Amino acid sequence: MRIVLLSRSGTLYSTRRLSEAARRRGHDVRLLDPVECELVMTGGAVEVFHRGRKVGPVDAVIPRIAQSVANYGLAVVEHFGLRGVVLVNDSSAIAQARNKLRCLQALAARGIEVPATVMARDATQIRQLVGRVGGVPVLVKLLQANGRTGVMVCESLQSLGAALETVLGLGQNFIVQQYVDRRGGRDLRALVVGDRVVAAVRRRPRPGRLARTLGRGARLAEAVLTREQAALAVESARVVGLLVAAVDMVEAGGKTRVFEVNASPGLESLEKATGRDLASPIILLAEQEVASRSGARVRRADGGRG
Ligand SMILES: Nc1ncnc2c1ncn2[C@@H]1O[C@H](COP(=O)(O)OP(=O)(O)O)[C@@H](O)[C@H]1O
Ligand SMILES: [Mg+2]
Fold first, then answer.
1. Residue 122 has what pLDDT?
2. I need a surface site. Which of 104, 162, 244, 250 has the fewest CB within 10 A?
3. Would you list the DSSP string of 3-17?
4. What's the pLDDT score for residue 212?
C-alpha cells in the first residue's frame, strides 16, 4: 500500500513510529509536510503537488496535523479525501475534535455524559452561569480561533469574574465547565483505533491545589477500563467521526464523563506507559479501511451482488 504521513517532521516521535510500523508491514511510506503541499483544482480534477512535483496515487493518508498549521493542513487532508484516498482521520472529524464546544455539543446530543458545560458571551450573570454547572470550582476553557486552548480553574465567583473579564476583553470565546473532583476517581485516556480501545492510561493525581492537577506532562500509568468505559470511548470517537482518537474521561462518583476527544494523540506517552506498540494497530486499521473500500468498489462493479 502507498501511505502518506502528513506531518511537519519525520523526527517527531509519533510520525517516526507510524512510519516504522508501516515499513515493517511492507508499505511504501512517504512523509509529506503539509505546508510544502500545493493544492491544485481545475474543472474535474484535484491534484496535490509536493515541492513542485505531482503526488502520484496514494491509498491512505494518516494526518498528523500540527496545531500551528491546522487550517492549511486540513485543506490538504480534504484534498486527498476528494481524490478518493482513505483518510485516517478525515478533515471534518479533525476539525470537530479541535473545537471543544462542537465536540461537547455532539457528544451531549448523543446522550454521552460530559461535565456540565455552558457557553455564553455575556459575563454579567456570573452567579447564574456558575449555577448551571453546579457551583464553584469551575473551569474556564478558552476557545481560540487557532484551535489552541487554555484552561483555568476558578475557585470563587470573584476569580471567575476577573478571568471572564479578561477573556472577553481579548475577544475570545469560552466555556465554563463543572470542575469534576476526581478524588477517589480516575483521569483516564483511552486510545481508540477503529472499534476498539487499544490502550488506556490514567494520569497520576498530584497532591496540592486544584490547578496542579491540570498539569500537562502529568505522569501516566496503564489503566484497565471497565467494559462500559471502553464502549463509551469507542462511541465518543464514532460520534465525532474519528477512526483514531484519544478519548479523555474523568471517572468520579460512580460516573464516567467524557471531556475531550483528540484527533492526533501523541503516541509517546501512551507507548511509554503501556510498553506496547500502538503504531501498528493504526497501520492495520488503514489497511482494513483500504481493503473494505476496494471491496465495496468491486461489489458495485459487480452490480451489487456478493
Ligand atoms: N471538567 C473537568 N473537571 C476536572 N478536570 C478537568 C476537566 N476538564 C479538563 N480537566 C483537566 O484539565 C486538563 C486540560 O483540559 P482539556 O480540556 O483536556 O484541555 P487541553 O487538552 O486543550 O489543554 C485535562 O487533561 C484534565 O486533567
Ligand atoms: Mg486535553
1. 84
2. 162
3. EEEE-S-TTSHHHHH
4. 47
Confidence of residue 66 (pLDDT cuts 50, 70, 90): confident
With b for 16 or more beta-carbon neighbours within 10 A and e for fewer, the 264-300 pattern comes to bbebebbbebbeeebbbbbbebbbebbeeeeeeeeee
- Contact (Cβ atoms closer than 8 angstroms) between residue 58 and residue 2: yes
Q: Whose CA is nearest to atom 18 of ligand 1?
A: 260
Report the largest interatomic distance among the alpha carbons of the chain, rounded to a whole angstrom: 68
Write down the H helix ranges in the chain. 13-24, 70-82, 91-98, 100-109, 126-132, 157-169, 227-240, 267-274, 279-301
For helices 91-98 and 100-109, give the axis angle rounded to 10 degrees: 100
Closest ligand to C-alpha of residue 101 is 1
Query: Do 228 and 207 belong to one domain?
Result: yes
H/E run at residue 174: strand 173-178
pLDDT in tens, 114-127: 999 999 888 888 89
CB-based contacts of 97: which residues, under 8 Å, 6+ apart? 103, 240, 242, 245, 261, 262, 263
Residue 104 lies in a domain: no
CATH number (domain holding residue 270): 3.30.470.20
What burial class does residue 161 get, using C-beta atoms within 10 Å of its C-beta: 0-12 exposed, 13-18 middle, 19+ buried?
middle
Show the cell assigned to 230: 471502553
pTM of the model: 0.93
Residue of 22, 124, 100, 116 whose CA lies nearest to 64? 22
The pLDDT value recorded for residue 147 is 60
Q: Report how far Cα 211 is from the mean position of its chain's Cα atoms.
A: 23
Query: Which H/E stretch holds residue 42?
Result: strand 37-42
Q: Pocket residues for ligand 1 (CB within 6 Å)? A: 115, 139, 141, 149, 151, 177-180, 187, 214, 248, 250, 259-260
- The reply to whether 94 falls in a domain is no
